[in-house]
Amino acid sequence: MSALVALAINAKKLILLTDINNLYSKDPKENIDATPIREVHDDIQLNEIKSSNINSNNIGELKRGWGTGGITTKLIAAEIATKGGVTVQLADGRDNQNLKKIFNNEKIGTIFYPCDKPIGNKKSWLSHAIQSVGDIIVDDGATFAIQNKGASLLLVGIINTIGNFSANQPVRILNKDEKQVAKGITSMSSDSIKSILHNKIQKSTSQIVVHRDVLVLS
What we know:
Elements: H1 2-8, E1 13-18, E2 23-24, E3 36-37, E4 39-40, H2 43-55, H3 59-64, H4 70-83, E5 87-92, H5 98-103, E6 110-112, H6 121-128, E7 135-138, H7 140-149, E8 153-154, E9 158-162, E10 170-174, E11 180-185, H8 190-197, H9 200-203, E12 208-210, E13 215-217
Parallel strand pairs: 1-5, 4-6, 7-10
Antiparallel strand pairs: 2-3, 5-6, 7-9, 8-12, 10-11, 11-13
Helix pairs in contact: 1-4
């Protein structure tokens, strides 16, 4: 919630106060070899931190968390905010001098730097805050174009739909294996899409169903 609010008000920085002094590679309360992580520079490094926690022996730590709110919520908040262009600084809230230090731009705790190419507030809200009401299944060509070319979803690339949805509602875009590729706002209802899918001549048109401006990759 804090990350979404930061995006909504166009904040420059999100401060997360907890009961640890910074992010660690492992739970410092249970692992003497845990090392502090002072800076996280991009989403690649952030994903590596998330993966190292999941792939190591501390899967349980992700579920129960360490520090107030748990490590999971901290990483999710950092991911949401930094992808939207917001700097995140995690620090120990028990030290009453830390807020003053942060406001003086001191590098305490752990700093998560924003992505070089943030996806913007609108797409951040679409990705994290808005619940999808249906699914659109697309073929390999559409999947490739969306993931690698920044393309809009065209009618010609659609195989099927799941659920009932109206135009201008949020939907998930799935590949042929029904794995999520993206999320976006559809310009057509599920009934309209299904009707055209049964008409090969109409389906061959290049009508845009989800424009790339309202489409965010998963």
